[in-house]
Automatic annotation (TrEMBL):
It comes from Phoenix dactylifera (Date palm). InterPro entries: Homeodomain-like_sf, Myb_dom, Myb_TF_plants, SANT/Myb. Residues 9-61, 62-112 form the Myb-like domain. Keywords: DNA-binding, Nucleus, Repeat, Transcription, Transcription regulation. Pfam families: Myb_DNA-binding. SUPFAM superfamilies: Homeodomain-like. Residues 9-61, 62-116 form the HTH myb-type domain. The keyword Ribosomal protein does not apply. This is Transcription factor MYB41-like.
Amino acid sequence: MGRSPCCDKVGVKKGPWTPEEDRKLVDYIHNHGHGNWKNLPQNAGLNRCGKSCRLRWTNYLRPDIKRGKFSEDEERLIIHLHSVLGNKWSMMATRLPGRTDNEIKNYWNTHLRKKLLLMGIDPVTHRPKADLDLLAMLPPLLAAAQNLGNLTAPLDNVLRLQADAANLARFQILQSLIQLTSITSPLDADARNLLGSASLQNYQFSDLLQMNHQLEGVMDGSLGLPQNQIPVTSGLSGLRIPQLSNSFQAHPESSNTLEGQEMVAKFSDSCSFTEHAMESNGQSTHPVFNSNAIPTSHSTPSLVSTSPEHASADQKQDPINSTASTPFEDWEGLNLDGPDNDLSWKDFLDQISWSSAS
DNA sequence: AACTCCGTCAACCGCTTGTTG
DNA sequence: ACAACAAGCGGTTGACGGAGT
């Protein structure tokens, strides 16, 4: 260490490259190859340091560089690669022909990171942000939503707002319930670490269920309208979150305990949207816990495979080419869609991600 | 028209890694 | 084993242009 920088020479030009400089660099490399970058500027007649020349060539002048807007496939691939590799831009660039590490890095920081944030996904962990501190705001929000009915705003607008707000809140609660239940097993220290939210411990299952019931009030009763008359005006309003008893990803160990079984059964019973879907499937509205149907995952699935340090054993074997290679695949696996849904789970994710974020 | 704010992206900086003598 | 060097890498900066006021 302690090596002096290569560009400390006084009088070496910095800043944007001129077309003339570009031409000199391209001509030289075409004729001689770049060879030793340190000697290149002198040989090519450029008043630049070798490092600057190398960067200009690799990030801009190289003939195989694909410029222009990133395609949706490229976006998805970058998100997946980032979930697996983290900020290894150069490794990501090897998977995206024609794209440079610098370009991918910039695109991530200026577009994709924000997109994920807008979707409520933590761009570092690639997990949904179960912001339980926000849940603390739900009771006053619910009260405010109910008070909306007293305002003079057009009824239809009020209903839309209430429906959207309630569905959004319900989604948040569902997510939190899944996480809460998933860490009930004392064996699952990993899940606790992954969740890493101190405030989570402060929330009781019953608190969340109570909030869901309150939401039902907003959805169904606050304005004296049956639920099927609440206007469905947006993607969120159309969302149902059914079929939890079949697809709810409880922990295998906890499912073998009375506590685990009771919790899942209680959860299913308590959620009206669960009953809604089960009826449509011809199943009992009071589900019997079926240990044969216990799914496998034991924490809230990540929208893409997890960060390197969180990767599963399978993913560690071949994380980049893992079959769980598309964003949302794990969540899609939850099969939260029901046959009578206005909007499928996948549609919902697509809608809030690729359209609203852009 | 003038100014400010903000997003984008090329380029730079400094650290790490790999190679060579 | 060590030092010196080149190349690679990722975080950050700053110029630029467009949008908003």
